[in-house]
Design a protein that fits this description.
About 35% of the residues lie in helices and about 30% in strands. By secondary structure, it is an alpha+beta fold. The protein has 2 domains: about 100 residues, 2-Layer Sandwich (YaeB-like fold); about 170 residues, Gcn5-related N-acetyltransferase (GNAT) (Aminopeptidase).
Length: about 280
């Protein structure tokens, strides 16, 4: 199966800059050089993993690779479900390109919040497998069955929808929770618009529970919301029987305002509704 090569806006801008720089001396040589880069990238259509994995823990969660293209380096990601290779940047091999991409990611706010243990990051196409895997645990099936994915294809489609939602005003805004020490994808936090306002959501995969990650991630996300939005009130809703989720809301300072029957994922269930003033 042939993979589709997708040149992102940042990578296209890099290629234009390379061409213009070389064209100062010779336009024809500039054109030939860019052609050589594209010829090198074409090998990823048949061999998407022929590049090298970036040996830097910062990139581990993004599963980024690099391919040497003449005197430049193409940084890219692979989505096996969509059969796409996303070229993120094309930078000079003689530059400190890892640091440049690192700063580029931060400037683009892929990492929206962090502390000494966790990072909250925008999702990228390579996370579909972690999203699928994290959705399969028993607690998810019991409490939020609508968020259990039946296939990798479904998870990939949802991740792409999440990525597209970052540019909207309505959301939902869903972010991955990454453990810093090993770049493990622990789960997610999200902000979803509902009739009464904005609801916070969260899920930590069952294999990572019992370590306080949910409470830490929600507090980190709340701090981000407080400092980067105009929202003054956040709603937290959980099934009344979900003791772990209730504890997270309590520890994060949410105030109980209702307990009883209510709609939860389209069904009438016994729920709790809480609020947090920022």
């Amino acid at each position: 199966m042939t993979y589709k090569i997708i040149i992102t806006d940042s990578a296209f801008s890099d290629l234009e800059s390379i061409k213009l720089f070389i064209a100062k001396d010779n336009l024809e040589i500039a054109k030939q050089y860019i052609l050589k880069i594209f010829e090198r990238l074409e090998q990823l259509e048949s061999f998407p993993y022929s590049g090298l994995k970036i040996a830097n823990s910062f990139f581990d969660y993004a599963k980024a690779y690099y391919l040497i293209c003449v005197n430049h380096v193409a940084i890219y990601q692979v989505n096996d479900i969509a059969k796409c290779v996303y070229v993120l940047r094309v930078l000079s091999h003689y530059q400190d390109w890892k640091n440049i991409v690192n700063k580029d990611i931060l400037q683009n706010k892929s990492v929206i919040a962090d502390n000494d243990k966790l990072q909250i990051v925008k999702m990228n196409q390579s996370m579909y497998y972690d999203v699928y895997k994290n959705s399969q645990d028993d607690n998810n099936r019991k409490y939020v069955p609508d968020e259990v994915f039946d296939s990798l294809e479904e998870a990939s489609e949802v991740v792409n929808q999440i990525i597209n939602s970052y540019d909207s005003e309505e959301g939902p805004f869903v972010y991955a929770v990454i453990r810093k020490k090993d770049s493990a994808n622990l789960g997610y936090v999200q902000l979803v618009k509902i009739e009464e306002g904005w609801e916070i959501g969260y899920h930590i995969a069952e294999i990572y529970t019992g370590n306080g990650y949910a409470t830490e991630a929600v507090n980190l996300f709340l701090n981000y919301i407080k400092n980067n939005t105009s929202l003054k009130l956040i709603i937290g809703i959980a099934l009344a029987a979900n003791k772990a989720s209730r504890r997270v809301l309590e520890k994060c300072g949410f105030e109980l305002i209702y307990e009883g029957l209510g709609l939860y994922q389209g069904r009438k269930r016994k729920i709790i509704k809480t609020i947090k003033r920022l």
